[in-house]
Amino acid sequence: MKKIFILIMFFCSILVSAQKYYTKTGVTEFKASVEAFESVEAKNKSTTAILNTNTGEFAALLFIKSFHFDIALMQEHFNENYMDSDQFSKATFKGEIAAFNLDELTKSDKNFTLKGILTVRGISKEVETIVRLKRIGSKIVLDSEFNVSPQDFNIEIPSIVRKKIAESIHLTLSYELVEKI
User: Fold this and answer.
1) How far apart are alpha carbons 52 and 54 in whole angstroms?
2) Whole-angstrom distance between the N-terminal and C-terminal Cα of the chain?
3) Do 96 and 115 form a contact (C-beta atoms < 8 A)?
4) Rounded mean pLDDT of the chain?
5) Which region among 48-52, 82-86, 161-165 has the lowest average model confidence (pLDDT)?
């Protein structure tokens, strides 16, 4: 009887894990540029994200220091002066894709509403945006864009550079999720 129970638990764990798709190489970009000034933008190519295809639950985690800028000094200022990345090393998102149905995904983009909590610098804010999902082979491709305000996360922009940084930060997400085995 004990062996049957262990065998059932083993197969249940396989089924549960097969219901999730994930990535460790998701790309998260932000742009905070203002015309007539130097571009303020960075890319993080190591965002971890997971999607539960049964429930539509979605979560993502990224390390702040993994954002890379073209200009090293800008990256240093970003980590030390704005994001306090030694103290607040990561940003997280936890939410749900409304009306998600894996069977409806095709090679064409399908729009869904994503609602959840974005936590940056220890401050949580509710976010709602549209995500575009499609299925290419065994992968789920997720793309989205939305804006946040530095003030929402107590990010202080010194007056000397305030006019060089956008009031609204544009985020772009591009994740290729594979089935978690």
Assistant:
1) 6
2) 27
3) yes
4) 88
5) 161-165
Three-state secondary-structure class, residue 78: helix
Going along the chain from its start, the domains and CATH numbers come out as 20-179 (2.40.128.110)
Could you tell me the CA-to-CA distances from 30 to 6, 41, 92, 133 in Å, in that order?
47, 6, 15, 20
Question: The pTM is what?
Answer: 0.85
For β-strands 110-120 and 123-136, DSSP reports them as antiparallel
Residue 177, helix vs strand vs coil: strand
**DSSP string of 111-124?**
EEEEEEEEEETTEE
What distance lies between CA 3 and its chain's CA centroid?
Answer: 41
The region that residue 24 occupies, defined by phi over 0 for left and psi between -120 and 50 for alpha, beta otherwise, is alpha
Residue with the larger pLDDT of the pair 145 and 163: 145
CA nearest to 49, candidates 136, 127, 139: 139
Tokens, residue 26: 């998701």
Q: What six digits make up the tokens of 115?
A: 């609602």
Q: Which two tokens stand for residue 27?
A: 């790309």
Q: What is the pLDDT of residues 112-150, one digit of tens each?
A: 999 999 999 999 999 999 999 999 999 999 999 999 999
Nearest to 20, CA basis, from 57, 46, 63: 57
Question: What average pLDDT does the segment 97-118 reach?
Answer: 97
Q: Centre a 10 Å sphere on the Cβ of residue 42 and count the other Cβ atoms it contains.
A: 20
